[in-house]
């Protein structure tokens, strides 16, 4: 195998009840990347479309992540990478994570798969660190593994993938405004009420139980955020209204995707997702801000080779 | 059916990662209660052994909980209750909860089962409120339902029972000292660090996933408490040493049972539980304080009728 093309999907992190620990993988929205063996050793970024990103390997999220995997092996060849970005930077649906996860997956394939997808999470975090300043896994894990993922801890890194109930769909509305992750972090308090922490643990526990038990009612009740949303929602125009119409349209839950500005809704079944998408569009149109909106099944495979 | 005898098991609440939301049900340790129909209407407590408790229905935890169920029906008979306490008050393994859960279960049986066990949780909370001043469900839920239970929320009350992996055993060491629940509450801060709340949600999520997936390693990694144990452990003599020897003996995790003073350990398999019990006993003996120690499977049935 000298050349492969891969699909690196978009992801939703946090999902209301799982700030910094929970994520899920989307379908149909994602980057494409091509990896090609070269005689010269090293990692080379040779083409970038869809975004204005640096070609220097050490300054590029995909480059840094790719190098982390590449340097574990004593290769007699190099790898060149084409990056075709479809996920907009700063959208809140894991743009940098898709680059990082895609890069480690593609390089690992050309190296003969020395690592499992689960092991690749730690390498992808190196790319994330370049993008956000800290190594976190809540987007790269679902991008690599598919389904829902829970980051149970970092010392040592411990990621669990949990199969999605079959009928779950996500709606994602991406407003064309920039919310910097640093700003989204800055509005959060350092301390929270013990009672809110208890509520949030109960919600996350309920959500995980709901996934295993295919209990949509439990999933719905658990999709609440008392820790982060109250502080971040003011960064997103018309957030409360968009969320409310999503819930009124039958969504199981709705909230901020990652650090925002994207707003997601989880729905049982495609027709509810479509109603929900229509209502969210209509509500957000009031802001006069342009946006994209997607409906997606939960991606059960994660990053993969395509033709 | 005019008379029944029931077993109301002891329970462990909190279990490190699930403060105020998680609990599990023990086997072999619990109260016995007898319920008998009477011609006179009302709830009457006619015999109490093993503890010095009030006979007045309105002042007795079992009485208050029993009345809550009894008064929902228009009965032409009353019920008298004998309470044979085996679980010591203030032990941290759900003594008042066993009284409350046993009472609602027994009365419900004699009334012809108008309520499911899950519905009975809310009534048992009325008894808990008399004991602790607030309605909480983290001990009454596992006592009624068996296995592990997660209280996902109170408005509305939402309790999920999760089957225990087959080989799980609990060791409980009960030091004969009193830790008042009010004191155990008073040492807790009102606010905690956001980063600790994130760690705790990851731990609880991991624990729930571990139960569903029968993943003992994940269960073990998740049995950590960064929210409560650091504050409460000083109320329990030699806590750190007892916990450490439990972990060294192969326990999956160890911590404070409920508000203490009991110390629990969860183990995979009976022989590890026995080693663990021996080590914990030996370590606690250094304090010169008397204690009881139990080894128990996880009770999968909860409160039940016995002969």
Which helices and strands, and how do they pair?
The structure is a homodimer of 307-residue chains.
Chain A: E1 3-13, E2 22-38, E3 42-49, H1 61-70, E4 78-84, H2 95-110, H3 117-132, H4 140-145, E5 148-154, E6 157-162, E7 168-175, H5 181-186, E8 191-193, H6 194-213, H7 216-222, H8 229-232, H9 239-248, E9 253-256, E10 263-268, H10 270-285, E11 291-297, E12 304-306
Parallel strand pairs in A: 3-4
Antiparallel strand pairs in A: 1-2, 1-12, 2-4, 2-5, 5-6, 7-10, 7-11, 9-10
Helix pairs in contact in A: 1-2, 1-3, 2-3, 6-7, 9-10
Plain-language structure description:
The structure is a homodimer of 307-residue chains. Chain A is of the alpha+beta class and 307 residues long. Chain A has 2 domains: 3-162 and 300-306, 2-Layer Sandwich (Ribosomal Protein S5, domain 2), CATH 3.30.230; 168-297, GHMP kinase, C-terminal domain (Alpha-Beta Plaits, 2-Layer Sandwich), CATH 3.30.70.890. Chain A contains 10 helices and 12 strands. In chain A, strands 1, 2, 3, 4, 5, 6 and 12 form a 7-stranded mixed sheet that branches. In chain A, strand 5 (148-154) and strand 6 form a beta hairpin. The longest helix of chain A is centred in the middle third of the chain and has 20 residues, at 194-213. The radius of gyration of chain A is 19 Å and the shape is globular. The mean pLDDT of chain A is 95. Chains A and B meet through strand 5, strand 6, strand 8, helix 6 and helix 7 of A and strand 5, strand 6, strand 8, helix 6 and helix 7 of B.
Keywords:
307 residues; alpha+beta; Ribosomal Protein S5, domain 2; Alpha-Beta Plaits; 2 domains
């Amino acid at each position: 195998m000298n050349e492969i093309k891969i699909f690196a999907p978009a992801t939703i992190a946090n999902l209301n009840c799982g700030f910094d620990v929970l994520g899920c993988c989307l379908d149909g929205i994602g980057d494409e990347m091509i990896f090609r063996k070269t005689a010269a050793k090293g990692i080379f970024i040779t083409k970038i479309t869809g975004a204005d990103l640096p070609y220097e390997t050490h300054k590029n999220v995909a480059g840094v992540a790719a190098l982390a995997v590449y340097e574990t092996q004593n290769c007699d060849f190099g790898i060149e990478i084409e990056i075709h970005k479809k996920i907009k930077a700063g959208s809140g649906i894991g743009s940098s994570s898709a680059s990082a996860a895609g890069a480690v997956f593609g390089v690992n394939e050309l190296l003969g798969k020395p690592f499992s997808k689960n092991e690749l999470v730690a390498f992808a975090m190196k790319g994330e660190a370049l993008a956000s300043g800290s190594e976190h896994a809540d987007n790269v894990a679902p991008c690599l593994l598919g389904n829902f993922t829970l980051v149970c801890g970092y010392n040592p890194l411990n990621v669990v993938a949990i199969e999605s109930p079959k009928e779950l769909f996500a709606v994602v509305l991406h407003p064309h405004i920039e919310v910097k992750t640093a700003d989204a972090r800055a509005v959060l308090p350092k301390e929270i009420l013990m009672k809110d922490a208890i509520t949030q643990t109960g919600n996350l526990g309920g959500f995980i139980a709901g996934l295993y038990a295919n209990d949509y009612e439990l999933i719905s009740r658990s999709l609440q955020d008392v820790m982060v949303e109250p502080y971040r929602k003011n960064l997103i125009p018309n957030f409360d209204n968009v969320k409310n119409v999503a819930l009124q349209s039958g969504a199981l839950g709705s909230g901020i995707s990652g650090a925002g500005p994207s707003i997601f809704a989880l729905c049982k079944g495609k027709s509810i997702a479509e109603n929900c998408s229509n209502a969210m569009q209509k509500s957000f149109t009031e802001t006069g801000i342009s946006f994209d909106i997607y409906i997606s099944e939960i991606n059960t495979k994660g990053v993969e080779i395509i033709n």
